[in-house]
Automatic annotation (TrEMBL):
Protein name: Isocitrate dehydrogenase [NAD] subunit beta, mitochondrial
Species: Culex pipiens (House mosquito)
InterPro entries referenced in this protein's UniProt entry, alphabetically: IsoCit/isopropylmalate_DH_CS, IsoPropMal-DH-like_dom
Family the UniProt entry places it in: Belongs to the isocitrate and isopropylmalate dehydrogenases family.
Taxon lineage: Eukaryota, Metazoa, Ecdysozoa, Arthropoda, Hexapoda
SMART domains recorded: Iso_dh (SM01329)
Amino acid sequence: ELSRICQWVKKQCASFPERIVGISCASSQNQVEKIVPRFPFGVCAHWSSLLLRSRMSFMARTVARSLVQASCRGIHSTGAVQTPPPPAAAVKDSSKEGRITCTMIPGDGVGPELMYAVQEVFKAADVPVDFETFFLSEVNPVLSSPLEDVVRSINKNKVCLKGILATPDYSHTGELATMNMKLRNELDLYANVVHVVSLEGVNTRHKGIDTVVVREQTEGEFSALEHEAIPGVIECLKVITAQKSARIAKFAFDYATKHNRKKVTCVHKANIMKLGDGLFMRECERISKLYPRIEFEKMIVDNTTMQLVSHPHQFDVMVAPNLYGNIIDNIASGLVGGAGVVAGSSYSAEHAVFEPVSIWVFLSIFMR
């Protein structure tokens, strides 16, 4: 009976792949029930909801993962590519013909819909890219591909298009690192770049904004280094190193040089955090001396936020530690219409991962 249902579901996936992915991305039974009435095939929806709320056997987990991967390939493959990813040799031959293989992570919530829209644009523009798709999710670990498989694919392809990944709170289990953090650490994606630019047709208070925020994202506050020293007392460690501070500073100045930018602003709180932020500020200042044609300035983070919303045009390239950069790029995004209209990218020495700036999966507007 299970085999018969699976065959029927696979057949439906060809016509309704985005709805299959939608159910797999729902993080609760209530979300599944909101999506289910829109389906013309109730059996598939009911079976998928059972997968989400029950503890699966090994066989059921394998079947569920296969269905999600199949539906993802149906949405996110280019041209006639509807088969599993080719071996390494085939990928190499494809690149010789001018085509590029890119790892794709649809993400949670509206992520698959966004990736589908990107795919349609690629098809219309005849972009020579083939996608190797992996469903990666923290809210649905039963259906998720192993992180090791995703990392292996990105290591091979060097480039990834990533949807929004939800970040549920699993602190009660002792797990503090999110899937995003694990992926960044595995690939050493140390530089996050957010290009904040005004768009035509978006009505905002400030016009003509063109600012780049460069953020170090492998150390600092977002390192999952927290513990309860004694009941009721939490210690959160912020680690700043000279090596990584200098690396992100050099990245910011190299970016400014390559894109004809005139100024780099170091954002810090060294007036209070004299050792940690002081080290970051001094390394940025030291690296700036290697780029005499680019203006360098230092600005305390609280003053930066005020200046950003009152006189945003004074900023060109901004470089900041993890937490400050995260706050600043969201404020800057709000100046041009919100995080949903701003693109982000993360870089290591060998990899590039492109993703939305927003961390919200927007389940409230899913499939609307």
